[in-house]
Amino acid sequence: MTRSDTGEHTTAISPQIRLANEIAVQFPHLPPEEAAEAIAKHIRQFWDPRMKAELLRRMDAESTALDPKALAAARLLRDQAPTSAGR
Amino acid sequence: MGLLKEPDLGTPAKPGLATVTVEVDGMPVQVPEGTSIMRAAALSGTEIPKLCATDSLDAFGSCRLCLVEIDGRKGTPASCTTPVAEGMKVRTQTPRLEKLRQGVMELYISDHPLDCLTCSANGDCELQDMSGVVGLRQVRYGYEGDNHLDLEKDTSNPYFDFDPSKCIVCSRCVRACGEVQGTFALTISGRGFESKVSPSANDLFMDSECVSCGACVQACPTATLQEKSVVDLGMPNRTVLTTCAYCGVGCSFKAELRGDELVRMVPYKDGGANEGHSCVKGRFAFGYATHPDRQLKPMVRERITDPWREVDWETAINHVAERMKDIQARHGVGAIGGITSSRCTNEEVYVVQKMVRAAFGNNNVDTCARVCHSPTGYGLKQTFGTSAGTQDFKSVAQSDVIMVIGANPTDGHPVFASRMKRRLREGARLIVVDPRRIDLVRSPHIKADHHLQLAPGTNVAVVNAMAHVVVTEGLVDMSFVDSRCEDFDAWAEFIARPENSPEAVAEITGVPAADLRAAARLYATGGNAAIYYGLGVTEHSQGSTMVMGMANLAMATGNIGREGVGVNPLRGQNNVQGSCDMGSFPHELPGYRHVSDDAVREVFETLWERPIVPEPGLRIPNMFDAAVDGSFRGLFVQGEDIAQSDPNTQHVTAALEAMELVVVQDLFLNETAKFAHVFLPGTSFLEKDGTFTNAERRINRVRPVMAPKTGMHEWQIVCEIARAMGYPMSYPHPREIMAEIAATTPTFAGVSFDKLDKLGSVQWPCNDSAPEGTPTMHVDAFVRGKGRFVQTPFVPTRERSTRKYPLILTTGRILSQYNVGAQTRRTANVAWHKEDVLEIHPHDAEVRGIGDGDEVTLASRVGTTSLRAVLSDRMPVGVVYTTFHHPVTGANVVTTENSDWATNCPEYKVTAVQVGLRHSGSAAEQESEEEPALVD
């Protein structure tokens, strides 16, 4: 998320990065490893394969835009379950 | 079905098992203690003459027609107000009683116009009936004396007339307005001869507090309060029992017809959800079904800028199938999908998700519940194990504490609100959690014990703080928790942390800590405590978290698993529950079972003879994103106006414009149809044949009143599209679709059209364990076994006020209009709500130079619209409010892409905005064309 000088955020980032970040911030009560697993589990359960693929495609190039917990979750997804395009 | 005149036992049933035996005209009858003589007589087959009595109202004893003689007692007591006693011997017909009744009737008739033959109530008038019953043969008093025959008729209400010249001042309308509806808009003004029914302080009905629920019309024994449609068309001569197509209460109605013409909708006394009550929408606002705006023929066009071309069904269906197949051939199986509608029947929804999964070959199916109650699905499944409210509506009558969170039942779910208000008048305590001072906070005979007027977006902080009080003050029901729940200790440690205390969050939420503590103590210790909630809970960035937070609170206090308690979503549309049950979500097959479950997929794959993709498909917002990025190009939209109802209109329309094929199946050419390439005309609820499932999981029959005006049922069209795409799908009748649902979905295993016809309705789960359904869930165990406590940290929304957008906009709806208004704008309901307005606090208005009624601009970071301002202190300073019933306003032009983290349900309830006076030629750009009131 970026913010303009007036304080409002903009939405220049991809939907997948934004959505992953929105999930990630919901787990402040968990240790990082558990949070990453919970985020990855949620994405596995609810995301269309193309969204997961897009997240994995962008995760390295846009790692600074990803919440660290979301990035850790994305790495888990990449390591644990190869996704199909689903198209 | 001979339901035109339902039996009326005169006075309400008395609960209880203890019975007494009495003798009525020599016939013994056994009835519950406290039953009136009138009702006991009726149960024994003897109807005692009556005028002021009806079994939907408490006995009143004013008409003096129901007099009886009782052995051993003096006089002739009124049978409606006299309870039975053991061994009592009652005589209902004696010469003395006959003479007394004739005398009473003679007086009534002496002040009543004798125009029976031309009266609109001829044949449906209790005064007329009773004249015959008592054997009235003469009226000796004439019209020479003073009378009320020249009193002026009040025709101000668009749906019914009030003719005081025909009034017998029985007070049934006044009592119905109070006892049944709970509005208390009517009274008897004056004394003696001057007594008359008066809306408010002798106002016209239209100018009074009357909410046009129709209870008074229903109760009136004469033509004094009469539907205009009956006056115009005549008395109906047949009836079809069906279910309302508006909100999630799902009221049962008798559609009363004269030939093939619908004359009126009358609430059904035996309807499980409404028990004879109604609201202005269900009772009167059905004219849209035959509105000339309805498009009845299929239409196609190549580009959305082309004019529509009417075609026959075969051409339209083949066109859809060919274009969908072509898109898949060029862009992949996942490039198309469908959206189901909560306004359609379970059977219609089921076939759409089946078409998507079996014919399209993907899971790209979602439903409009995505934008309302999808967090309910997620939150209640995580904690309780299934996505449904825990109670039936009747349960509220056993509640001692009622907590209403983010809901406005008197506007959104008025028939349930009447039940709730009745219980509140009986003494139940009320907690309202809402940024806006809704009517329930203070209305006749109702006053909330606590109104926690929180800042929008801080629900989770409030519910956590309530739970903090429960845990730290030792108010946990440890017996319930120990035996029924899991993960309590970790949750209790989390919730007891200082950052969750009322004092710590008071600055964020705006709720004084002492108020919050008092409310929490009341909820935990006040007896049966029930939570009812609406979209003010779900349509937030933490909507799912809040649902889990409420579930935690209910479990911690043991308020689950019996009558009077529970966690209950008030569903917005009539079949939100059903459309979700039917497998409309892209990750779930019917019955809320994940697509990754091999055993569940096998059930459907075996029956459907097609493989089912084991991974979730796209949700509605994901479809829009995918359309913009080019991977999603074909969409079938069943009965939902996504261009008006979904947030961030610019993004939605950009997505629709990017698609190669948008197919809209609807009654009207709605906003989404402006972006469609194929329009498939849909059927109204009066033409549908199937079932709706309401917010209490009650499956009700929807029976056709007339044949489809379009020539095809919606489920038939969907089946034909699937067939044309190469997947054979056909059913002889919707009952076979329900049979397939029952065969594949354990919670529906015992449901059939035959059973529904026999029992009236059932609440799922309905199966071998519960053959007649399940009114209360989680009685002995939760659906998931143990109830699970889930930690719910408060994470503020990223949508917050800024220097540029310093106010917070929240949205809702009002009584007379319904959702995007496609139906209600095409009825006389526009008399109450011609336009959406912006409620703004006088302070916020003053600093902006805005006066009441001024046209203002409403701008957020994503768009700008304009509407009229109404100054109101219902909202706190810094918060503004509007509705979204009119496309000309386009409230969703300003709402953003923010959504619930778990389900992507849009965050409609929090948008940072600025409001300013609109000057002529200002920049308020509205995408929608001017749309006038659409009343025919």
From TrEMBL, chain A:
<dbReference type="InterPro" id="IPR021074">
    <property type="entry name" value="Formate_DH_dsu"/>
</dbReference>
<protein>
    <submittedName>
        <fullName>Formate dehydrogenase subunit delta</fullName>
    </submittedName>
</protein>
<dbReference type="Pfam" id="PF11390">
    <property type="entry name" value="FdsD"/>
</dbReference>
From TrEMBL, chain B:
<keyword id="KW-0001">2Fe-2S</keyword>
<dbReference type="GO" id="GO:0015942">
    <property type="term" value="P:formate metabolic process"/>
</dbReference>
<feature type="domain" description="4Fe-4S His(Cys)3-ligated-type">
    <location>
        <begin position="96"/>
        <end position="135"/>
    </location>
</feature>
<dbReference type="Pfam" id="PF12838">
    <property type="entry name" value="Fer4_7"/>
</dbReference>
<keyword id="KW-0411">Iron-sulfur</keyword>
<dbReference type="InterPro" id="IPR036010">
    <property type="entry name" value="2Fe-2S_ferredoxin-like_sf"/>
</dbReference>
<keyword id="KW-0408">Iron</keyword>
<dbReference type="InterPro" id="IPR006657">
    <property type="entry name" value="MoPterin_dinucl-bd_dom"/>
</dbReference>
<protein>
    <submittedName>
        <fullName>Formate dehydrogenase alpha subunit</fullName>
    </submittedName>
</protein>
<dbReference type="Pfam" id="PF10588">
    <property type="entry name" value="NADH-G_4Fe-4S_3"/>
</dbReference>
<feature type="domain" description="2Fe-2S ferredoxin-type">
    <location>
        <begin position="18"/>
        <end position="96"/>
    </location>
</feature>
<dbReference type="GO" id="GO:0022904">
    <property type="term" value="P:respiratory electron transport chain"/>
</dbReference>
<dbReference type="InterPro" id="IPR019574">
    <property type="entry name" value="NADH_UbQ_OxRdtase_Gsu_4Fe4S-bd"/>
</dbReference>
<dbReference type="Pfam" id="PF13510">
    <property type="entry name" value="Fer2_4"/>
</dbReference>
<dbReference type="GO" id="GO:0016020">
    <property type="term" value="C:membrane"/>
</dbReference>
<dbReference type="InterPro" id="IPR017896">
    <property type="entry name" value="4Fe4S_Fe-S-bd"/>
</dbReference>
<dbReference type="GO" id="GO:0043546">
    <property type="term" value="F:molybdopterin cofactor binding"/>
</dbReference>
<dbReference type="InterPro" id="IPR006655">
    <property type="entry name" value="Mopterin_OxRdtase_prok_CS"/>
</dbReference>
<comment type="similarity">
    <text>In the C-terminal section; belongs to the prokaryotic molybdopterin-containing oxidoreductase family.</text>
</comment>
<dbReference type="InterPro" id="IPR009010">
    <property type="entry name" value="Asp_de-COase-like_dom_sf"/>
</dbReference>
<keyword id="KW-0479">Metal-binding</keyword>
<feature type="domain" description="4Fe-4S ferredoxin-type">
    <location>
        <begin position="158"/>
        <end position="189"/>
    </location>
</feature>
